[in-house]
Amino acid sequence: IRVGGIAGGGDQPTFSDCSNTGTIKDDSASKNTEIGGICGRFTPGTKTTVTKCENSGKIICATTTGAGVVSIGGIVGNAQSPTEFTNCYNKTGSKLSNSNTAVTTEYIGGIIGYNNTKASTIKSCGSTSEITAKSQAYSGLVAGNIAAGSSVTETTVSGKFNETTMDATNFGTYCFGTSSGFKTTTGVTLAQ
């Protein structure tokens, strides 16, 4: 299942000046779910750009399968191509959640859920969200799991992870999944 506020999937697409305010929910029996405020999944390709896009809607995975992979992103759920995010915002009111605790792996991120195969760029973006996940291994308020060679600059973040408010003491922990290829918070600022 690939679901997005603008598009379910795209082959090396370009998104600009798009926004979603609605609730997006997958309560199917699908084993693999990819959901994004703007786009659910980018197929493998050379480059994808997402500019001036926003999400303030709720994104909910309530699948009923006992196994599978869930990818949820405030902007994009799963990007299989190198992606440039510029001036994108997951805004106040956004809630990203996976209520199926039986899934094998979950990737949840304020901007991008999963992109561990190609380095991405997140520049001048912001994420204010509430994330509910079964674990923090691949879930974070900026990105769940992105490649080690990625770049994150001039980006602000705030919100809650499993009901715990992000603050100065847990900032480094909640930005990216603890098992993500990219973990540094250089270039990321806690929004007060």
Task: Give the key terms.
5-stranded parallel beta sheet; 1 helix; 52% strand
Describe the structure.
- This protein is an all-beta fold.
- Helix content is 2%, strand content 52%.
- The chain has one helix and 24 strands.
- Strands 4, 5, 9, 10, 14, 18, 22, 23 and 24 form a nine-stranded mixed sheet that branches. A five-stranded parallel sheet has the order 1-6-11-15-19, with no helix packed on it.
- The longest helix has 4 residues, at 171-174.
- It is globular, with a radius of gyration of 14 Å.
- The mean pLDDT is 94.
Write the layout of secondary structure elements.
Elements: E1 2-4, E2 7-11, E3 14-16, E4 19-20, E5 24-26, E6 32-36, E7 39-43, E8 48-51, E9 54-55, E10 58-61, E11 69-73, E12 76-79, E13 83-86, E14 89-98, E15 105-109, E16 112-115, E17 121-123, E18 126-132, E19 139-140, E20 143-146, E21 151-153, E22 155-161, E23 164-165, H1 171-174, E24 188-190
Parallel strand pairs: 1-6, 2-7, 3-8, 4-9, 5-10, 6-11, 7-12, 8-13, 9-14, 10-14, 11-15, 12-16, 13-17, 14-18, 15-19, 16-20, 17-21, 18-22, 22-24
Antiparallel strand pairs: 22-23
Q: Determine the strand fraction and express it as a percent band.
A: over 45%
Percentage of residues in helical conformation:
under 10%
Number of strands: 24
- Give unreliable regions as ranges: none
What is the residue-averaged pLDDT?
A: 94
Task: Provide a quick synopsis of the model.
The chain has 1 helix and 24 strands.
